[in-house]
Design goal:
Lambda_DNA-bd_dom_sf, two-stranded antiparallel ribbon, elongated, DNA binding, about 110 residues, DNA-binding, 2 strands, alpha+beta, 434 Repressor (Amino-terminal Domain)
């Protein structure tokens, strides 16, 4: 069964009045947040023309840690997010609403790459 078909099946069930258990809904929300962060880190890193290794060096992390963040495999702590934002020469913006999660980096000035 393809991912698209799963989504269609889920949407069909929700339209029929099916409600997800709270723990499933919470897990889905956490995954969306992690994916939004991963996408924002990747977008800013590639905008600067940096490799994962170069970003890791700037942030004082390992390349594997950067890879886990970009792969949504980990949820970084606030101090780690601060290191990443500094290394990307940007401010990290996170907007958390019930169904809308937005994560972006706002560059401080000229690209520091």
């Amino acid at each position: 069964m393809s991912h698209t078909r799963w989504k269609t099946l889920r949407e069909r069930k929700l339209a029929e009045g099916f409600t997800e258990p709270d723990d499933v809904a919470e897990a889905r929300h956490e995954i969306r947040l992690s994916m939004a962060l991963a996408e924002a880190v990747y977008a800013r890193r590639t905008e600067l023309g940096l490799t994962q290794t170069e970003l890791a060096d700037r942030a004082g992390l390992t390349q594997a840690k950067v890879s886990r963040i970009e792969g949504s495999d980990t949820v970084p702590t606030l101090p780690l997010l601060t290191k990443i934002a500094r290394a990307l020469d940007a401010s990290l913006n996170i907007a958390l609403d019930d169904e809308d999660t937005r994560v972006s980096f706002t560059p401080h000035g000229s690209n520091a790459a």
